[in-house]
Specification:
CATH class of the largest domain: Alpha Beta
Structural class: alpha/beta
Shape: globular
Number of domains: 2
Order of helices and strands: EEHEEHEHEHEHEHHEHEHEHHEHH
CATH architecture of the largest domain: 3-Layer(aba) Sandwich
Number of strands: 12
Strand content: 5-15%
Strand order of the largest sheet: 3-4-12-9-10-11
CATH topology of the largest domain: Rossmann fold
Distance between the termini: 108 Å
Radius of gyration: 26 Å
Helix content: 25-40%
Amino acid sequence: MPTLGPIHPEPSPYRTLAMTSPNTGLPCPPLTGLQACSDHTWVKRAIGILQGDGRRSADTHLINPVFRGLKGISIYLKDESTHPTGSLKHRLARSLFLYGICNGRIKQGTTLVEASSGSTAVSESYFAHLLDLPFIAVMPRTTSGQKIEAIRRFGGKCHFVDSPREVYEVAARIAAETGGYYLDQFTFAERATDWRGNNNIAESIFDQMRGEEHPVPRWVVMSAGTGGTSATIGRFIRYRDFDTRLCVVDVEHSAFYDAYTSGDLATTCAHPSRIEGIGRPRVEPSFIPGVIDHMIKVPDAASIAAMHVLSDRLFRRVGGSSGTNFFGLCWIAANMIAAGEQGSLVSLICDSGDRYTSTYYDPNWLKQNDIDIAPYVEMIETFLDTGEFRADAPLLHN
């Protein structure tokens, strides 16, 4: 009987350098041991931190101040100054971080860079601190000292430029040089926020309004910085089929209004905005004119006057962009009264006035910048008390 030679087991396909597909005959990649992904662990932890912040801070107060002259008009102000970093930009910063992490651009140790006039950078510095990430803010030298101090308090660094027009290029360059990630609020603001809902600011406003006398606002009034908040609100209104219109208020030195009226999104403005956080020298990618029903453009003196009046009426200081919003809201209310209409109007308190003690609340600063708020203060006070809107201190455009 013949003897059997040594038995050599068939090689396991799992041990070969390459396998062959039974369908195509082409080699398949070898199976190798799968390694644990430390980055996945960091991402999971980071998302948990950001979502926890969202649960704790997303639903800010909706204030309903009463002005005796505005018969039949209910005013509501969404107070975004109560966020942990003191401004509306807290929402945006959290969304930008989630956007960057979920797209694989922000990882453990990534240096983050932003172009900002202050408030967004304050909020981003806060989140960078929570996630132990380096952060650099590129901002104009004219940014308020209180904002610069807040950024540094959270461990962020500030890189100053002479002109607001320089922030985009310099931020992108620093991100490239450091191997970091440019958060780019002006491009990604409208993309990073889920405008359909998911506890965005528009959904929060309409949820809080449900039990009010006029639960569906006639108008929401919002100023434009990145354009992201107005885009979110305008899209949400359309998506939910509300009978609400959106008015966007622009400031004296800004490209948004002229671009909206002309249809030319290449419009630019040579002078920097004096109202921090809103108004831009160019039309930002996040500005979506197609969801806006009306725009007005007001003088800086009107914005600052409205800020002062509202601060006195609320017994606490609000910021300059909140003044812009409030003046726009008064103008819409005046038009409603003239037309015999009633209903609710909603706008935002974007941040606290404590960040502007050396500028908008300083009489010497106003004088140095040739800003006379007295005519607008009188006009707004008279309107709130009597309902009479005198146009002897007019808008720039409406």
